[in-house]
Amino acid sequence: MSDYADGSPIVLPDDPSFGPEVQVDYPGYRSTRWRAPQRRLVTLPEEMHDVAGPVFGAETIGELDHDLTRQYDGEPLGERIIVTGRVLDEDGRPQRGVLVEVWQANAAGRYHHVVDQHPAPLDPNFAGAGRCLTDDEGRYRFVTVKPGAYPWGNHENAWRPAHIHFSVFGRQFLQRLVTQMYFPGDPLFPYDPIFTSVRDPRSRELLVARLDMGLTKPEWALGFEWDIVLGRDGNGTTPMENR
Amino acid sequence: MTLPRTASQTVGPYYEIGLCRRPDNELAARDVAGAFELSGRLFDGEGAPIVDGMIEAWDAVGRRWGRSGTDGDGRFSFWLTKPDAQDGRAPRLDVYVFARGLLRHQLTRVYFPDEAEANGADPVLSSLDDAERATLTAEQDDGSLRFDIRMQGEQATVFFEH
Predict the structure, then answer these.
(1) Does residue A163 carry a catalytic annotation?
(2) B74 neighbors B50 (Cβ within 8 angstroms)
(3) pTM, 2 dp
(4) What is the mean pLDDT of residues A51-69?
């Protein structure tokens, strides 16, 4: 599958029938071609929905792991931001004490990773990784800097909109989610095949955080709110107290 | 009221920064009696190793979890003791595969080659044909177990809906 003659990415039209699912073989994102499974997926017994997932204890989290701006002696460059929200299941139940891990580029759009050779500066005060456990309301909270957009090789003149990678565990094994959070109003959205691989425009919108002036701390940091909704916390056949 | 679920996005090529900061690949310590290495390689549809993949393994019965990135040969590795069986099911690991180019993680399973009887009676394995079952069964490899994962092709690994 080649790109259009002018080098713009393949973007398929909206298709709300996908709902929250990505199109795993989305042709605009070239790396899917040899990696997305092509055979039918096999259905597992219903009991898999009640298989609990791993639990990570407080001892796995360092005191400053949630604050990406305080992991070195100096402060990273960039716009300081607070990113917070709740991890819920689709029935609205808060997922308490679950592990949330994040990673991101620095403010210049460069990852602290050997494979990233984008000629933007590394920041000696920014590794770009954090982790925390959700609290009793299912809430996570990170302090970081706003990541920059960066180029990638998917098609000519391809740029990723600014995003933060999120890895989230629910209480059930099948609730596992890895996704990306975006920032409101990013003009790169229509050109990004990873974003548009979510074919339902309403589901795409849900990947975008909301600026919240209530969370924003005067003279210090902008606040962004972003809730994460996982699949159902069990299939409803197991009494709550046993979970 | 049901809330709309958050869509999946790829882990991308730089997941290691956030997800592999510490070694997490021991479901059992290497020096525990009966501990062995389970390793394998992750391949794409052209037969090339996927060098930026990540595997998570979960023993749901013993509640043991591990994570391994893939190296320059597409190789991942875990240390474990064999999971216990439960409720007439064969011993197994539930395995998630993540990679650049995978917009959503994929779910597969590892079953064990020295459990012929339990594997034969397992309802999930029994629902598959011989070739499919073979993709889910690790192979003996000189005291270790080998479990390769193929995303596509004739010998593609069986993946499950999730």
Answers:
(1) yes
(2) yes
(3) 0.96
(4) 95
